[in-house]
Amino acid sequence: MLRQIRPSYHPRAARCLGAAVLVAVLPAAPLLAEGVPVEEAAKFLLILAGSAGSEGRVACRELDMVIQLKKADISVDAKANVAWSFTSDQTRFYAGQGKLVVCSSRKLFADGGAIAFERIGGRLTVFVHQANLKGSGVSLPESFLRMAVKV
């Protein structure tokens, strides 16, 4: 005669399983992409603006970034070749104007973003969407493009 085995529930076993799942997930967590703080991104925008022929000027609508740009003596200018984008709407707007759109996330590449700064495993990584970069008409130094991850 076959005996049916029923799974049993034990609270301590459930907690141990939950802890094991949590431990299994934690080592992978640093590999997830994280945003770069606006203070740090503002420094990179200054370098990009100079390389893109928009020395010391960046188009931006994000209040936190505007404050950081002004602290770094970068003027916020709607006519600049380089724009900082934080949302899909901003990205589409700036890309439609033919600007080099620097984004807070690679997710905005689908909306026309050309460059994104992210931290992966705690390390700063620069991503460049080549088609969107060409569409902006802005040329960047080869030294910058060599260090970036091309998408």
Automatic annotation (TrEMBL):
Keywords: Signal. Residues 1-33 form the signal peptide. This is Uncharacterized protein. It comes from Geothrix oryzae.
